[in-house]
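Supplementary Text 2. Reproducibility record for the structural model of the 259-residue chain.

All settings were left at their defaults, and a single model was retained for analysis rather than an ensemble. We include the record here because the model underlies the residue-level annotations in Supplementary Table 4.
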Amino acid sequence: MPGPEDDLALLVRAAQVAGPIALSFWRAQPKAWDKPGDAGPVTEADLAVNDALQTLLTGERPDYGWLSEESEADAARLDARRCFIIDPIDGTRAFIAGQEGFAHSLAVAEGDRIIAAVVHLPAMDLTFTAHADGPALLNGAPIRPSDAGISGARVLTYKSATDPEYWKDGRTPPFRREFRPSLAWRLCLVAQGRFDAALSVRHVWEWDIAAGNLIAERAGAVATDRHGQPMRFNSPRAMVDGMVVAGPRLHGELRAGMA
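Retained model, structure tokens:
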């Protein structure tokens, strides 16, 4: 069985393949449509990247399971010792709008834990990486989260997460809400210390956060579901019940204030 560092090297190679494919469609008016069930938009670029990644990754690791936002669900992944968890383009709305903030999110799970992860933003030439036995890196340099407390913290989340119903005694903490389109990128921005926390009070898809979860943890952040429990991956529903990702002090303060 390959080591985590071997799987990471494969994911980096795959991201380097995915980037030029996505950029060939970016700002070129790619065909786009809405997925059924109000599941959001998809483009021909998402599918092209997905096909290339699946061919490369499963060709190299045919015994690994496959979970991707843009592939049909395959229950066989649940029986595999390791599983790829992939979002071909995270931040599709930003991609369609011609914005730079879209990412390829690539991870390998062993059991229910992530052991190798890459988040690659090709339009910005940013590559975040981590494996289970090594540091979190941005373009090869180590990264660390901030040590901010809750007052004035810059928290990446959506507007409804600040609604009083989600906070004890209806008191939203005194943080500053900000937003970036890609969930995977949000977790990496916290790992990098450019923002102080990433928060979701709603369920999140595994493919959006699997890679960023490991990168944040290996950087030194605490990454849990909204109840403070470790995130678990390659589950039957492929969803995690919210997320709280921040440096240790701020993570504890956010969790203490949540209803």
